[in-house]
Amino acid sequence: MTVRVPSKINLHLSVGDVRDDGFHELVTVFQALSLTDEVTVAATDDPGVEVYGEGEGTVPTGANNLAWRAVQALAAHVGKSGDDPKVRVVLRKGIPVAGGMAGGSADAAATLVGLAALWKLDIGRDELATIAAKLGSDVPFALYGGTALGTGRGERLVPVLTRHTFHWVIAFDQKGLSTPRVYGEIDRLRAEGDPPRIGSHAPVVEALSSGDPRQLALLLGNDLQAAAVSLRPGLRRTLRAGVNAGALSGIVSGSGPTCAFLCSDAQSALEVAAELSGAGVCRTVRVAHGPVPGARVIGGDDAPRPSPPKVHA
Ligand SMILES: C[C@@](CO)(OP(=O)(O)O)[C@H](O)COP(=O)(O)OP(=O)(O)OC[C@H]1O[C@@H](n2ccc(N)nc2=O)[C@H](O)[C@@H]1O
Ligand SMILES: Nc1ncnc2c1ncn2[C@@H]1O[C@H](COP(=O)(O)OP(=O)(O)O)[C@@H](O)[C@H]1O
């Protein structure tokens, strides 16, 4: 069973204070993008995880892989527990690792959807979302996709109306940034001074319903950007280079270090991507559009072997 699953960016990421459980209270607007991973789950006598593409050779393939944690969580939920569920998970990754685009969360969500189909479970997306939330704050969104307002630690979702397909250029950095480290850095910056905080999400939601990328471009905001830039100062140059290349605006995606640039249309995105590639400020440049749907089965037992993730335009 093969599942395609989107990455995400946060069009708006407002980070509140740290809670007693160590998580920060968030108000965020997620958008799912066409930069995807593909996850195949199959019954096997040789259980485990294989990783190809982004992160091949560095992403853990053992019990720490979020996809494997999803296998165990779903097995426990449906009473199939055993030490080692007899499942093989193959990840074909197009989403940058530790990039702030929720690739690990995407793989966990895809594994839940793929296994539910493989095991022919009578289980809805909302029930999967309760399991997903225990695996990580961003996992439920990868199940639903689209554009959504996230609250709590990001796991409580309501859909947001969008009237437009938005076109993005995505700049991958040389190496990833750890999410807890970036949250720690924003706490440190706030303890030392008072970095500006982004305002309400309401104007972003309005811009999404109007569908005007120019209006949306003025409103993109991320409270974690200051922390990501503090840990990775070169991101300032990347953000400038995207705008100089013709993007309407640029933002650090979630906890970074990936940068996302909003463009006026598909043609402009191709031009910005070409120019940014030549600027020497990042490892890889991709174009993507959003919103796209959440994790969905694209191939079953009888289907032809799926092609690798389509990450180029
Ligand atoms: C920042 C965001 C924005 O969407 O995504 P990424 O940029 O990492 O993809 C998320 O909040 C990341 O969500 P996710 O990566 O699922 O985080 P989790 O596994 O739940 O938590 C990892 C760690 O991040 C910190 N964390 C996460 C979520 C939150 N609301 N407050 C936090 O402080 C905590 O230190 C936690 O231990
Ligand atoms: N399936 C997976 N894909 C990517 N990373 C994973 C996976 N499972 C576990 N990890 C670990 O989680 C960390 C964060 O991964 P990722 O979800 O890609 O980043 P982010 O939280 O920035 O969006 C990685 O550094 C990696 O060690």
Brief summary:
With 313 residues, the chain is an alpha+beta fold. It contains 10 helices and 12 strands. The strands form 2 sheets. Strands 1, 2, 3, 4, 5, 6, 8 and 12 form an 8-stranded mixed sheet that branches. Strands 9-10-7-11 form a 4-stranded antiparallel sheet.
List the helices and strands and how they pair.
Blueprint (H helix, E strand, L loop, with lengths): L1 E17 L5 E20 L4 E6 L12 H12 L9 E7 L9 H16 L6 H11 L3 H6 L2 E5 L4 E4 L6 E7 L6 H14 L9 H9 L2 H5 L3 E2 L2 H7 L3 H10 L4 E4 L6 E5 L2 H13 L5 E7 L5 E4 L14
Parallel strand pairs: 1-8, 3-4
Antiparallel strand pairs: 1-2, 1-12, 2-4, 2-5, 5-6, 7-10, 7-11, 9-10
Bound molecules: 4-diphosphocytidyl-2-C-methyl-D-erythritol 2-phosphate and adenosine-5'-diphosphate (ADP).
What would your notes on this structure say?
Catalyzes the phosphorylation of the position 2 hydroxy group of 4-diphosphocytidyl-2C-methyl-D-erythritol. The active site is at 8, 138. The structure is a single chain. With 313 residues, this protein is α+β, with helices and mostly antiparallel strands. It folds into 2 domains: 2-160, 2-Layer Sandwich (Ribosomal Protein S5, domain 2); 166-290, Alpha-Beta Plaits (2-Layer Sandwich), CATH 3.30.70. Helix content is 33%, strand content 28%. It is built from 10 helices and 12 strands. The protein has helices spanning 66-77, 103-118, 125-135, 139-144, 179-192, 202-210, 213-217, 225-231, 235-244, 266-278, and strands at 2-18, 24-43, 48-53, 87-93, 147-151, 156-159, 166-172, 221-222, 249-252, 259-263, 284-290, 296-299. The strands form 2 sheets. Strands 1, 2, 3, 4, 5, 6, 8 and 12 form an 8-stranded mixed sheet that branches. A 4-stranded antiparallel sheet has the order 9-10-7-11. Helix 1 (66-77) links the parallel strand 3 and strand 4 (87-93). Helix 2 packs across helix 3 and helix 5 packs across helix 8 (225-231). The longest helix is centred in the middle third of the chain and has 16 residues, at 103-118. It is globular and about 55 Å long. The site of 4-diphosphocytidyl-2-C-methyl-D-erythritol 2-phosphate has 20 residues, from strand 1, strand 2 and helix 5. The site of adenosine-5'-diphosphate has 21 residues, from helix 1 and helix 2.
